[in-house]
């Protein structure tokens, strides 16, 4: 925790109320107006919206194994620049995060970097192989205290394994985060299946490949009585299945990515592989259904699915290119553009879907993102009036595969505080050494 004090003067809370937020010794001391504090660094927050630090339940940090794409350090710098104070690191690393040793290593790298809380996600099956359950209990009991398990990138396709995984995590209140993709229905699939895939001559990826797995898994979750989370929903039909499951009382939560809330398959006419992502960009009707589902709570959270890939994996023919987009720095601007500016979500809603709900699903420490007096100072200040071209300067990770380069987006993150340490200062990232020292002090 940082020893430095800050007074965020004249901020607007998600509720719309004005507040002077006083941060001391890593904690929020008060959020009333008219606060004065001798010795505190005053931040002019007039016109800025103060959100609880953003929490990403779905980030690919790529370390260990794919450090040419991203590392825990570069990925958490991107996170801080995007307003995130906690990220859940997906397990598709090399070695796969399927043992207590690997998840503890990832968490330690996050602590040492100092830019955000890193909570590792454990793989459901050994090596993401889909054949044998990984050491789920050992990862849960490790120092990393893993609560979220996922084979993301691959679907846990075997129904019996999925049932056993749900039974296992139920014993310690964990959750299985499913990448819902029937492998047989999507062999060599390249984009959404429909008239456009026929026109472009690319192999189609049918909506039913996602929806059928979600339908099976909500029924399994009901049967077991365990928690299930569905990653990156992309179709209107998936929304219908989740809505049905929630009405039935099934413990399921769902996520949408910013890109599935803004972009459609029409972009693929360019054959620009920056638009190649798993699940694929869909139709306008799907985007509208996902937006409404976020607004009415059927979709619980927005998660980035930040998926960095090096240039050579993207600057090639469509069929050969890797699936995935970076998304940490563009998440808040895209959410503002797609949902706030359109009147579908207010700032309290943004705080819910980008911070409070993901923290709750991932079982982050109680109050860590509660945004109340005495809570750890995880705070993000956003300038909602800014509208700017999203350019390379906005990216801080190791990869640049953003679909938004050159696009105009609303809103800009100005300040990020992680446990009282300012990781982003009026748009500028804290130096690496300073962040590492602050993290070191916090551990002691
Ligand atoms: N989303 C993607 O297109 N790619 C992800 C895997 C995944 O999230 O399924 C990746 O690891 O690159
Ligand atoms: Zn996935
Ligand atoms: Zn992913």
From TrEMBL:
Give GO cellular component annotations, separated by semicolons: cytoplasm
Q: Which lineage ranks, top first, belong to the organism behind this chain?
A: Bacteria, Bacillati, Actinomycetota, Actinomycetes, Micrococcales
* Record-level GO BP terms: 'de novo' UMP biosynthetic process; purine nucleobase catabolic process
The Swiss-Prot or TrEMBL record annotates one GO molecular function as: allantoinase activity
Instruction: Give the record's keywords alphabetically.
Output: Hydrolase, Metal-binding, Pyrimidine biosynthesis, Zinc
Please name the source species.
Herbiconiux flava
EC number annotated for this UniProt entry: 3.5.2.3
Q: What is this protein called?
A: Dihydroorotase
Q: Which domain of life is it from?
A: Bacteria
Reactions it catalyzes = (S)-dihydroorotate + H2O = N-carbamoyl-L-aspartate + H(+)
Q: In which pathway does it act?
A: Pyrimidine metabolism; UMP biosynthesis via de novo pathway; (S)-dihydroorotate from bicarbonate: step 3/3
| Amino-acid positions noted as binding substrate in the UniProt annotation, renumbered to this chain | 60-62, 92, 278, 309, 323-324
Positions of the Dihydroorotase catalytic domain: 49-235
